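Internal tracking record. Fields below are filled automatically when a chain is submitted to the structure queue. Please do not edit lines marked as system-generated. If the sequence contains nonstandard residues, flag them in the REMARKS field before resubmitting.
Queue: standard
Priority: normal
Entity type: single polypeptide chain
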Amino acid sequence: SKATVSVLYCLKSSNTSKMVGTGMTREKLERIAAASRTGGNVRRRHKAVRKSAEPEDTKLQGTFRKMGMTPIDVNEVDITMEGGDVIRFGNAKVQASPQSNTFVISGSSKRVKAEDAAAEPEA
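SYSTEM-GENERATED OUTPUT FOLLOWS
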């Protein structure tokens, strides 16, 4: 296949030169070149907004309220897994919805062996 190449010729007249096929004069081109930025970083139009976890937590709490979840006061939650390990939540926040048999446990957790969980005193 043949590649087509367009070539712009610059005709020199007495005081202005015009590029054939573009309607652009040398003065216009020099004015545009002088006004354009060269180098530097690209200008950002919007500042990047960092979202914290707090609004997400607020949305989650609102969803729990819609589901009819109510907070329950407990000090510690232990979940026993099939392999014998225990997931222990100290100072856990527990929410429950008895109608739908749904529980939400949030907080920091650690995984311990069943023997260690029975031997450790509750905090």
